[in-house]
Structure prediction request, 499 residues.
Amino acid sequence: MNTERPQGANPDKRRLAADVAAAAAKAAKFRSERRLAFFKPYPTQDRFFELGATKRERLFLAGNRCGKSESACFELVCHLTGQYPSWWRGRRFAHPVKAWASGETSFLVRDILQAKLCGEPGVEAAKGTGLIPRDCLLDVSLARGIPDAYDSLQVKHASGGVSILRFKAYAAGREAFQGEALDFFVNDEEPPADVYGEVVARLNQGACGITTFTPLKGRSRVVLMFLEEGSPDRAYVSMALSEAEHFTDEEKQKRVAGYAAHERAARESGVPLQGSGAVYPFDLAVILEDAPRDVPTQWRRIWGIDPGIGHPAGFALALIDDDSCIHITHAFRLKDEIPVVHAARMKEICAGAPVAWPHDANARERGSGEPLANLYRKAALKMLPTHAQFETGGYNREAIVAEITQLCRLGKFKIARHLSDLLQEWQLFHRKDGVIVAVEDDILSAVEKCVLAKKHARPAALGSKLPNPHAHGVWVEDRSTGRRVQVADGTQNESYFGM
Prediction:
């Protein structure tokens, strides 16, 4: 007897499969037309957006393919549409805006900015699949002489009005950027200094703008405006390839290996090429390491701090092994915080290590009138009796730089590769006319205190015995005693937590 089921005898399964396929296609179409709603920032991108609440001009220095252009276009679309995500802490516009999006040439503007905002150029079916939601893209005007390029867009704003976006190219020269007033601008890739100045001159009161690029031109006029001029209206962030989670670790390694050695810092970490002005001119590979694990109990630790008088405070924790190699395992900076908060962060990482501090921590804190060093002591940090200095007395920065350079060449100085803020400072650290430029060096200054006071380092475990109201760490089991201790989030997998 033939028991085979006739072909097509199960219409319910076929109907279910068709429904599933239709639903998947509908979901994919919805996602392609609502990319704005699905954007999730990396921490550095989020910090860059937040700076917009207080800064008129922002610079995003980043390695290649780290997401800098995507970040710029995302913020631009938020302002054009008035649609801001729930996590947004940056600048907001309650009204329609007039904005520019600029790049090096009209072709690059079309292929990068226009594509990210509107969808693949020249493909009618792709129109509305960029970051601008399809139903907000009201009208486009074509550019003359550039196939499939747009000159301007009209975008529906949440207030009910219409925002205007115009595309511009640096190649057209400064004169092409004269004229209308702006609420917002995006410069994708580094503009000539005269073009940048003209764009900023177009800003209305309460307006702002962002510039993003990989700094292959080194310490150019535009870069120095952000890094050295110290204007309260400007801020910058750097983002390294290591932070880009859209690449696997293997792919990141391949990319870095493919970069020319002299461009590696810029293409990998967004650090401007330094040339002969770099204080530490050797390859990062000389000093980078994975954070030490299975740390023997006799290895010694010491904190270095730069309390931040008129600038952010910098902190570094050094681990010194049996061969006198200095490993910088933890480093961070804090801005606009008081010593008790500084101390809380330090204690959740390592409460038991001695703390080396600079001479200017003898200065009195404005609020209490007490020396800063005393405030740290009252916060239960193990401050050294006197400020960090050479054994013969005194402090000379060139001398300590020379010592660190020698340690690096001997293989006796290492930095954990995940400490991106410290590595950014390390690569930006430079001389001008032969003199060290003491700008953006907060953590480096703390590292110098560790090296100066290394003889005072003592065995100390990570973590803290007691709960801390200012801390934001996690609790783990101390493997030597069975007690629970608090450590900084991200260090809980280190193998030794004995007190």
In short: The first helix runs from residue 11 to 33. The chain is about 30% helix and 20% strand. Residues 466-472, 489-499 have pLDDT under 50 and may be disordered.
